[in-house]
Write a structure and sequence with these properties.
By secondary structure, the chain is an alpha+beta fold.
C-alpha cells in the first residue's frame, strides 16, 4: 500500500479520532483493540495498530471453536483420544 498522509485534530483531553476506514482496515473497531504509540529519537510519533487477537487467528477464539477445544480436552483427559508420533503413523491408523 502506498504511503498516505492525513491530518487529524487533537480533541479535548488529548483524544484523537481515527477515520472509520482506517479503523476498519486495521481491525481497530473490534473490542479490546489498542494502538501502540512509539516516540522515535528523531521526534517522529508512530502509531501502530495492536489487536489482542490477530484477524487471521480470530477463528480459533470463536465460541464454537472453543467449545470443540474444550470437548477435545475432556475426551483426552478421559483417555478417549489417541496421539501419534508423526503424520505417517496417523495416516496408517486410518487404514485400521
Amino acid at each position: 500500500m502506498a504511503e498516505k498522509s492525513q491530518f487529524l485534530t487533537l480533541q479535548n483531553r488529548g483524544l484523537l479520532a481515527l477515520p472509520p476506514d482506517i479503523r476498519k482496515r486495521h481491525h481497530l473497531d473490534e473490542p479490546g483493540a489498542q494502538i501502540e504509540l512509539v516516540e522515535r529519537e528523531d521526534g517522529v510519533l508512530e502509531i501502530r495498530p495492536h489487536v489482542p487477537v490477530p484477524a487471521d487467528q480470530a477463528w480459533f477464539w470463536t465460541e464454537s471453536w472453543q467449545a470443540g477445544e474444550r470437548e477435545a480436552s475432556e475426551e483426552l483427559e478421559q483417555g478417549l483420544g489417541r496421539t501419534f508420533e508423526d503424520g505417517e503413523s496417523f495416516l496408517g491408523s486410518l487404514d485400521e
